[in-house]
């Protein structure tokens, strides 16, 4: 086998590991939307690896469906809603979480199977990921506002990496990459890095959010002391 194949498998294993580890961490933080999306990525990457090792087409189909879920709705809708817990203090109920996931699944089925989506599908995926990138710009702004320069730089790198992948995914094949393996090596690494970067950005904004009420309380107590 070519060395490219081993790099492909290693990149896939990296995505499986990072999405699983940080997906479980997010579930422990009770952010079920982000945790579920990360674990959907784990499931997709696992099936992709099994397909690479066995050639089973069913595993490739499962992976591609999960990929469609994440590109169309999991990242641009579910991930944004999950990140809004630390950017907008938005904490949906369990019922709302279920609605997000079921709605995303229904939307994926339509995009995946409807004849009228065959031609616009690539543009739909590019548009939805681009909207997610716009939201990441806001995340960077929030990180900078709380002094998290390193995490902000990390998110900028993740944004640039994943937006590049999204922009060439269905439009610009790499010359000589007939089996698309080189592209997927970069794509898998990009998504792996995104799963790590967003987790630490989430934690940084969560810490800043927890400090703010304490600061407000300190200012209030200080004001009371001055009036005594």
TrEMBL record:
Keyword Transmembrane helix set for record: yes
Q: Specify whether Transport is a keyword of the entry.
A: no
- Superkingdom field: Bacteria
- Keywords in alphabetical order, please: Membrane, Transmembrane, Transmembrane helix
Q: Which residues cross the membrane?
A: 6-24, 36-62, 68-86, 98-117, 123-140, 152-169, 181-202
Q: What is this protein called?
A: Transporter
Task: Give the species.
Answer: Paraburkholderia dipogonis
């Amino acid at each position: 086998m070519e060395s490219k194949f081993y790099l492909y498998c290693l990149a896939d294993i990296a995505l499986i590991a990072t999405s699983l580890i940080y997906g479980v961490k997010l579930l422990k933080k009770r952010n079920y939307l982000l945790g579920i999306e990360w674990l959907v990525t784990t499931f997709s990457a696992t099936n992709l690896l099994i397909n690479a090792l066995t050639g089973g087409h069913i595993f490739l189909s499962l992976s591609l469906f999960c990929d469609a879920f994440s590109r169309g709705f999991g990242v641009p809708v579910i991930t944004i809603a999950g990140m809004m817990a630390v950017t907008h203090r938005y904490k949906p109920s369990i019922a709302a979480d279920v609605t997000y996931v079921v709605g995303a699944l229904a939307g994926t089925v339509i995009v995946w199977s409807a004849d009228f989506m065959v031609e616009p599908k690539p543009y739909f995926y590019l548009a939805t990921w681009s909207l997610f990138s716009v939201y990441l710009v806001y995340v960077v702004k929030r990180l900078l506002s709380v002094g998290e320069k390193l995490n902000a730089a990390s998110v900028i790198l993740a944004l640039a990496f994943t937006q590049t992948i999204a922009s060439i995914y269905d439009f610009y094949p790499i010359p000589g990459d007939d089996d698309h393996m080189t592209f997927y090596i970069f794509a898998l690494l990009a998504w792996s890095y995104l799963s790590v970067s967003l987790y630490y950005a989430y934690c940084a904004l969560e810490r800043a959010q927890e400090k703010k009420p304490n600061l407000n309380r300190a200012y209030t107590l200080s004001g009371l002391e001055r009036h005594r």
